[in-house]
Amino acid sequence: MQPSQKALVVGIDHYQSMDRLFGCVNDIDEVQRVLVHRLGIPTTCIRRLASPAGECAGPGATLGNIRDALRSMACGAGADDRVIIYFSGHGASVELVDARGRKFHREALVPVDVSTDGPSRARLLSTTTS
Q: Which of 11, 64, 97, 115 could hold 24 in an S-S bridge, CB 3.0 to 4.6 Å?
């Protein structure tokens, strides 16, 4: 069986409770063009989550949608498949504490539905969760 190619591109210009960004959705437009025209990845193999300016969270780049897309890619990927993930949006540094009480930091992606009211760490996407 020949290896497949899959991609997830995420671009967020409009955040509910953070500064808006400009150009993140344009970034994923350009990345998608490269994936299709230079790498030959069919558009049907590219999952796109975008939250353009002027649109609040909806079916766009929410935490749930990003996690679902990552899960779907992981479950359907074989050992030799090429998986590309591209994110353009806000990032954050999260302070965590290990079992010995030592503090450390992890970088995280910020989905469109992050809240700056109260502890928002649960609404971020990182490799380490508390």
A: 11
79-113 residue pLDDT tens: 899 999 999 999 988 888 889 999 988 898 999 88
In whole angstroms, how far apart are CA 70 and each of 1, 51, 117? Answer: 23, 17, 26
Residue 124 CA from chain centroid, whole number: 10
Question: At 113, which amino acid appears?
Answer: D
Q: List the domain boundaries for the chain.
A: 5-123
The CATH code belonging to domain 5-123 is 3.40.50
